[in-house]
Amino acid sequence: MPSPVVTSIELSSLRKLASGKVRDLYEIDDKTLLFVTTDRISAYDVIMANGVPFKGALLTQISAHWFRVLAERVPGLKTHFLTLSPPPALSDAERSLVRGRSMQVRRLKVFPVEAIVRGYITGSAWKEYEKHGTVHGLPQPAGLKQCSPFPQPIYTPSTKAELGQHDENITPAQAAAIVGERYAARIEELALSIYEAGAAYARERGIIIADTKFEFGLDEETDEVVLIDEVLTPDSSRFWPADTYEVGRDQDSFDKQFLRNWLTENGLKYKEGVEMPAEVADATSARYQDAFQRLTGKTLDEALVGL
Ligand code: ATP
Ligand code: MG
């Protein structure tokens, strides 16, 4: 088993470069980072006071699984994944703290756009479509219902906001103005191919990936666009159980929807420092574990053997 619920980690053997809402980034050397995923959970861009059991390890193992699967299924795809083994610099105590929840990755220059792909219309996209018939300003066919599939998956980028700020939806043309035409075209092409390969893989395992967000970095030595960050996890995506899917209504989900609903029902949306009751944290953990097992065919314990 990975270490119990951990919302904050200090590794004194490595220099901490950044701490996001969920992950902490450490420097191993000038080409390599240690990506450590805590059990923190954010909803509506606010971090909860307590964590979700096993979430950091589940997210890390889901991403690692996808990096392997996608590298085989998307021609020409490069990813930042190096290894799940922690670097030799860590002490034994630090090793057990990060066991299963850390990954060594290539250090790259992050493109400041979030590459969102939507296969199904829901959430903020559905709200915009209901009002204006558009999604991120792009006109969509008439007659879509809540949670309908789009005729083709669509690329709807957003800006990548600093901690505490909200990302803003932009058009592909605005994304091109931020990163340059050539990189923007490659990011869009990769995002759509990765989504299609990932969605097909998940669908065979009973999960609909309704939408997701990718991040990309630039390998400045080869000028290649590389898939970075976490990938196709319940934190970066909306996962729906395929067996209960129905057009025209909200779907059950494997992700934070359970927590979001609890926050909304209790008037706690956007409040800082909210403590989730154990039932909410455990039910959320169970959903992440269910998604993990369906995708990988393994329990978390099985995935962690040898780590
Ligand atoms: P959220 O994902 O909830 O929006 P966040 O993105 O601020 O929050 P985390 O996901 O917790 O933060 O932290 C991961 C950070 O690491 C992101 O800023 C991401 O852009 C960055 N990152 C991911 N992969 C790499 C990489 N290979 N090289 C450099 N930075 C990376
Ligand atoms: Mg992130």
From TrEMBL:
Record EC number: 6.3.2.6
Q: Which InterPro entries match?
A: SAICAR_synt/ADE2_N, SAICAR_synth, SAICAR_synthetase_CS
Give the metabolic or biological pathway: Purine metabolism; IMP biosynthesis via de novo pathway; 5-amino-1-(5-phospho-D-ribosyl)imidazole-4-carboxamide from 5-amino-1-(5-phospho-D-ribosyl)imidazole-4-carboxylate: step 1/2
One GO biological-process annotation of the entry reads: 'de novo' IMP biosynthetic process
Q: Which UniProt keywords apply?
A: ATP-binding, Ligase, Nucleotide-binding, Purine biosynthesis
CDD domains for this protein: SAICAR_synt_Sc
Q: Name one Pfam family in it.
A: SAICAR_synt
| A molecular function GO annotation | ATP binding
Superkingdom of the source species? Eukaryota
Tell me the protein family, please: Belongs to the SAICAR synthetase family.
* NCBIfam families in alphabetical order: PRK13961.1, purC
This chain belongs to which protein, by name? Phosphoribosylaminoimidazole-succinocarboxamide synthase
Tell me which species this is from: Echria macrotheca
